[in-house]
């Protein structure tokens, strides 16, 4: 953007502000969502899915798996016993294995199978 264009944009913003067009905007005075959290590679997709209230079922399988892996600790923490945790991990690993072997809709996976024993240990530690 040239210096002349930047001055024009600044002028338009000042004029809109003087007309009161920025008053009472939704979220005014509130912190920006996600501040202080690291951005994932597909942050824009998560943001759009949240904004448009798109559930996991609407995502392509690769992105659905990615979201499930991202939310895995919360999902496991809702389970009552180790057997249920191991069963959930086995089911997730089966879907990840299938996605790694064959073609899958969406971007390529950026993760592999979950270490069941490590995940169970982490689940136990979070419960303690």
Automatic annotation (TrEMBL):
Residues 1-39 are annotated as: Disordered. Residues 9-77 form the DnaJ homologue subfamily C member 28 conserved domain. Residues 1-22 have a biased composition (Basic and acidic residues). Pfam families: DJC28_CD. This is DUF1992 domain-containing protein. It comes from Glycomyces rhizosphaerae.
């Amino acid at each position: 953007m040239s210096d002349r264009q930047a001055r024009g944009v600044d002028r338009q913003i000042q004029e809109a502000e003087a007309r009161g067009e920025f008053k009472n905007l939704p979220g005014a005075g509130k912190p920006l969502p996600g501040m202080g959290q690291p951005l994932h590679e597909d942050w824009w997709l998560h943001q759009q899915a949240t904004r448009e209230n798109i559930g996991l079922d609407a995502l392509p399988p690769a992105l659905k798996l990615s979201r499930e892996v991202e939310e895995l600790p919360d999902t496991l923490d809702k389970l009552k016993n180790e057997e249920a945790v191991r069963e959930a991990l086995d089911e997730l690993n089966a879907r990840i294995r299938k996605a790694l072997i064959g073609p899958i809709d969406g971007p390529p996976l950026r993760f592999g199978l979950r270490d069941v024993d490590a995940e169970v240990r982490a689940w136990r530690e979070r419960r303690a």
